[in-house]
Design goal:
Elements lengths: L7 H14 L8 H16 L6 E4 L4 E5 L2 E5 L3 E5 L7 E9 L8 H16 L3 E8 L2 E9 L5 E5 L3 E2 L3 H18 L2
Parallel strand pairs: 5-6
Antiparallel strand pairs: 1-4, 2-3, 4-5, 6-7, 7-8, 7-9
Length: 179
């Protein structure tokens, strides 16, 4: 279990972010949602080091059981210098809350499944965002070859308690993969 204590300056950052975006976030299109809210959170976590960094809009694909799985996650953490190599964590589909289209949960699961296959690992983590709700997922390949996934409840990023937990979850990802 990873324990992260949010520092005072991080607390102020998160509270100001909520205040600046509270009234319009549900109306933001994907680009505005990404630029004004999601990117500041991800940049404040600082996922990169000399071996692992954050990647945006890079494709991932593999063959699995005769099927081609492919996707273009909005964000992921992976090894690599000029292009991503081994992905560890995904965030998908920064869909706006109003009139959202697509199925971000399936899209992120496809990318996660491709990463499990390419990495030859058993567990991978990810999540997706629809408007103000952030949802986290753990995908596990079982010993018998089946897959099982766990989905968190949605975290409302406009509620400080929830945004703080989102931030702690992202810090846990950093701790796990960006050492």
């Amino acid at each position: 279990l990873y324990k992260y204590e949010v520092q005072k300056e991080e607390e102020l950052f998160l509270k100001k972010l909520i205040e600046r975006n509270r009234s319009l976030l549900s109306d933001y299109n994907e680009q505005t949602l990404t630029t004004k809210f999601i990117a500041p959170v991800l940049n404040n976590v600082k996922f990169d080091n000399e071996h692992v960094k954050d990647w945006y809009e890079y494709g991932i694909n593999c063959k699995l059981n005769g099927w081609t799985l492919s996707g273009q996650p909005d964000f992921f953490v992976a090894t690599g210098i000029n292009k991503p190599r081994i992905p560890y964590f995904f965030l998908q589909e920064y869909k706006r809350e109003v009139k959202s289209s697509g199925f971000p949960n399936y899209q992120v699961l496809t990318a996660m499944l491709a990463a499990l296959t390419l990495n030859k690992t058993r567990i991978i983590r990810g999540g997706y965002i629809v408007g103000k709700l952030w949802t986290f997922i753990i995908l596990e390949k079982l010993e018998n070859g089946d897959y099982e996934y766990f989905i968190s409840e949605g975290f409302d990023c406009l509620t400080y308690k929830h945004l703080k937990q989102i931030y702690i979850n992202l810090q846990a990802v950093k701790f796990l993969y960006c050492k």
